[in-house]
Amino acid sequence: MRRLSLLKQPLLSVVNDHLIDYPTPSNLSYWWGFGSLAGICLIVQILTGIFLAMHYTPHVDLAFVSVEHIMRDVNGGWFLRYMHANGASMFFIVVYLHLFRGLYFGSYASPRELVWIVGVVILLLMILTAFIGYVLPWGQMSFWGATVITSLASAIPVVGMDITYWLWGGFSVDNATLNRFFSLHYLLPFIIAGASIVHIAALHQYGSNNPLGCLAVVDKVSFYPYFFLKDLVGWVIFALFFSFFIYFAPNALGHPDNYIPANPMSTPAHIVPEWYFLPVYAILRSIPNKLAGVAAIGLVFVSLLLLPFINTSSIRSSNFRPLHKKLFWLFVADCLLLGWIGCQPVEDPYVLIGQLASVYFFAYFLIFIPFLGKFEKALLHYVPRD
């Protein structure tokens, strides 16, 4: 009879093994709930995006008007639009917290290198998807943001301008650019969904990390109902937080200039990307040379990808690494500082502060992480002389 049970049938047995009977370390805290929240955010973005695409027109003369049509004339259109626009911010909040939790508890360490690498790839795809999605309303910030960011490709030697023209589909940001971005914005979330499945499969190969950072081979319980109910608490709190922005502050996380139709003849006084791009944008602005700035952006993600391989500590959790714990919280403060610098004018003292914050950002990954593990091992084996 057990063989004939519903959850033992093909496909459903995979769901059962990975989401219901999946053996989970019994000491996981609420910080481990952001993975499932990220999955919910992705589903919300895909569903609302599909319904919005039914009414959106990817043409430079009609895109802005079609968004206003969705807001004013489509039944429930305002709700779909605000849920999708604010959902992007919610998605990044959840993923950034998920990332910081992984950094704090050493979830990138062996044997979970592939889990971390796929996670960084998902973050890259999210950033790309969010950027091209921000262009679609075709407001002032949409147009000029697309112009500034795509122009960065022109800094690449020899082939830079060819890549830029290819991205534009012409010699400037125009209708061809908007059509390309709309097509990619529709496609990329499904690629993210596929990468998320790979991420989960890689995680379940060796099992989840835990707050102690030790191998939990014996002390495990099934995911359902124990951690399902624990995650459910986080889902309810998140739903209330998300709902506040949808109903009471739908434009708080956006820029008012994007309610002005795109005008190639009028440059905004201060071009600012969405808040979740601000730390990387601050690093870009902190470097006077355009090519070096683009290289620094690439180095941000290279540093994240290399983290499992340059880590030298045999202890995962920062709860047992007092020096790393202090450096980690300084890193969190540094990222917040970079986010603030990213929305300030390009002038002193903001440029200098951004440069100092950028130095610490890279020092954390490329200096502190590799050498701190060796220093900790030296302390562990240190024998004082009599």
From TrEMBL:
PANTHER family hit by this protein: CYTOCHROME B (PTHR19271)
Pfam families documented for this protein: Cytochrom_B_C, Cytochrome_B
Cytochrome b/b6 C-terminal region profile domain mapped to chain residues: 213-383
Principal subcellular localization: mitochondrion
Cofactor comment text: Binds 2 heme groups non-covalently.
Bilayer topology annotation: Multi-pass membrane protein
Family: Belongs to the cytochrome b family.
One record GO biological process: mitochondrial electron transport, ubiquinol to cytochrome c
UniProt: a ubiquinone binding residues: H204
Binding site for heme b b562: H84, H185
InterPro entries: Cyt_b/b6_C, Cyt_b/b6_C_sf, Cyt_b/b6_N, Cytb/b6-like_sf, Cytochrome_b, Cytochrome_b_C_euk/bac, Cytochrome_b_N_euk/bac, Di-haem_cyt_TM
TM ranges: 30-57, 78-99, 114-136, 143-166, 186-206, 227-249, 291-315, 327-343, 349-372
Gene3D superfamilies: Cytochrome Bc1 Complex, Chain C
Domain of life of the native organism: Eukaryota
UniProt subcellular location: Mitochondrion inner membrane
Protein name according to UniProt: Cytochrome b
Keyword Cell inner membrane on entry: no
GO molecular function: metal ion binding; oxidoreductase activity; quinol-cytochrome-c reductase activity
Keyword annotations from UniProtKB, A to Z: Electron transport, Heme, Iron, Membrane, Metal-binding, Mitochondrion, Mitochondrion inner membrane, Respiratory chain, Transmembrane, Transmembrane helix, Transport
Organism field: Micromonas commoda (strain RCC299 / NOUM17 / CCMP2709) (Picoplanktonic green alga)
Amino acids binding heme b b566: H98, H199
Cofactor entry: heme b; heme
Location of the Cytochrome b/b6 N-terminal region profile domain: 1-212
Entry-linked PROSITE patterns: CYTB_CTER, CYTB_NTER
General function of this protein: Component of the ubiquinol-cytochrome c reductase complex (complex III or cytochrome b-c1 complex) that is part of the mitochondrial respiratory chain. The b-c1 complex mediates electron transfer from ubiquinol to cytochrome c. Contributes to the generation of a proton gradient across the mitochondrial membrane that is then used for ATP synthesis.
Gene Ontology annotations for the cellular component aspect, listed alphabetically: mitochondrial inner membrane; respiratory chain complex III
